[in-house]
């Protein structure tokens, strides 16, 4: 019998269709017993005799994958593959798939929600109101301002649409330049340095690779306006967290909305102590619609991989 490990806690939480897809092929399902992100040691024990895995952000580095003697396919529940050793998978001919575009709108919504929340100091004002403090706290405007979007893939383009609804002047940065898209959407395609100098808001939608790790560092943040709001719903390692903490603490920038950290959950992160940082728990894709779509797509991707491998 084909055996599959499922690690994401939200898999099949609302719709049972993802489980039905797997069970229709007689697959033996092993679930994450902790309901938390699995540690390296924990996943090593669970992965030993599985043929496939549906994985979230749990570690699938070489040390883990070496324990999986039967593994033929990995189905990522999401799009980021920085937790998967792709070189090892290529060497061992392990197929890897992602749920492309399944959660793009959900993440774009969350990015914009964080941006608005930080700009208007929603969390801070809410906390004050609950303590009978009705002092008016002055915030900053969003409508008509300049926004820089780092990464113009599906999620970044979703943020472009939302920004256009706020009549924002959109700046864009990406490794790849889609001339037609940029022209049709009136985007100022430019460098990171120019975006940090010019923009009032920055939303990050880059993948975490060697070239983007800590691409936003002290030097880049020192270029920013004092009213900058920066939002990260991509990957924590893209921002140097120490540099961001310093910029926020010393009011070099106005605020930050952070959904992702280099280590999750973050241990003793100084960012959690700051009023001008709004933090969420890597939950930008956590909507009912996105969860259902990701689950169904992840299950179907795994089935197709098994068929290609000839084990179904």
Question: Can you walk me through this structure?
Answer:
This protein has helices spanning 17-23, 40-46, 62-65, 86-91, 104-119, 122-129, 154-165, 179-184, 192-198, 218-221, 241-249, 288-309, and strands at residues 3-6, 28-31, 52-55, 73-76, 95-97, 146-150, 169-173, 188-189, 201-204, 229-232, 255-258, 277-279. By secondary structure, the protein is of the alpha/beta class. The protein starts with a strand and ends with a helix. The relative contact order is 0.15. The mean pLDDT is 96.
Strand order of the largest sheet: 8-7-6-9-10-11-12
Strand content: 5-15%
Q: Distance between termini?
A: 10 Å
**Shape type:** globular
Helix content: 25-40%
Order of helices and strands: EHEHEHEHEHHEHEHEHEHEHEEH
Count the DSSP helices: 12
CA radius of gyration:
21 Å
Q: Uncertain segments of ≥5 residues (pLDDT<50)? A: none
- If you average the pLDDT, what whole number results? 96
Which structural class best describes the helix and strand composition?
A: alpha/beta
Largest sheet: 7 strands, parallel
The count of β-strands is 12
Give a short synopsis of this structure.
The protein is an alpha/beta fold and 312 residues long.
Key terms:
312 residues; alpha/beta; seven-stranded parallel beta sheet; five-stranded parallel beta sheet; 12 helices; 35% helix; globular
What are the SSEs and their pairings?
Blueprint: E1 3-6, H1 17-23, E2 28-31, H2 40-46, E3 52-55, H3 62-65, E4 73-76, H4 86-91, E5 95-97, H5 104-119, H6 122-129, E6 146-150, H7 154-165, E7 169-173, H8 179-184, E8 188-189, H9 192-198, E9 201-204, H10 218-221, E10 229-232, H11 241-249, E11 255-258, E12 277-279, H12 288-309
Parallel strand pairs: 1-2, 1-3, 3-4, 4-5, 6-7, 6-9, 7-8, 9-10, 10-11, 11-12
Helix pairs in contact: 1-12, 5-7
């Amino acid at each position: 019998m084909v055996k599959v490990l499922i690690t994401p806690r939200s898999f099949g939480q609302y719709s049972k269709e993802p489980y039905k897809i797997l069970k229709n092929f007689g697959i033996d399902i092993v679930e994450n017993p902790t309901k938390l992100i699995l540690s390296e040691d924990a996943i090593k024990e669970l992965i030993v005799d599985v043929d496939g895995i549906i994985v979230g952000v749990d570690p699938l580095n070489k040390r883990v994958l070496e324990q999986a003697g039967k593994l033929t396919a990995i189905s990522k529940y999401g799009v980021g593959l920085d937790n998967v050793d792709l070189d090892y998978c290529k060497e061992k001919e392990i197929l890897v798939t992602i749920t492309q575009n399944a959660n793009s709108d959900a993440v774009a919504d969350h990015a914009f929600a964080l941006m608005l929340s930080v700009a208007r100091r929603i969390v801070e004002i809410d906390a004050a109101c609950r303590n009978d403090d009705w002092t008016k706290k002055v915030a900053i405007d969003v409508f008509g301002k300049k926004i820089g979007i780092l990464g113009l893939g599906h999620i970044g383009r979703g943020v472009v649409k939302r920004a256009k609804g706020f009549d924002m002047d959109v700046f864009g940065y990406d490794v790849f330049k889609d001339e037609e898209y940029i022209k049709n959407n009136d985007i100022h395609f430019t460098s990171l340095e120019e975006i940090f100098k010019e923009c009032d808001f920055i939303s990050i939608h880059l993948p975490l690779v060697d070239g983007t790790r800590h691409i936003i560092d002290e030097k880049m943040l020192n270029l920013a306006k004092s009213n900058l709001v920066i939002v990260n719903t991509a990957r924590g390692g893209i921002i140097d967290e120490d540099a961001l903490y310093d910029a926020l603490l010393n009011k070099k920038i106005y605020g930050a909305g952070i959904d992702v950290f280099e280590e999750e959950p973050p241990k003793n992160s100084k960012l959690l102590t700051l009023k001008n940082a709004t933090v969420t728990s890597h939950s930008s894709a956590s909507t009912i619609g996105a969860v259902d779509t990701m689950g169904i797509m992840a299950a179907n991707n795994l089935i197709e991989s098994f068929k290609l491998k000839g084990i179904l």
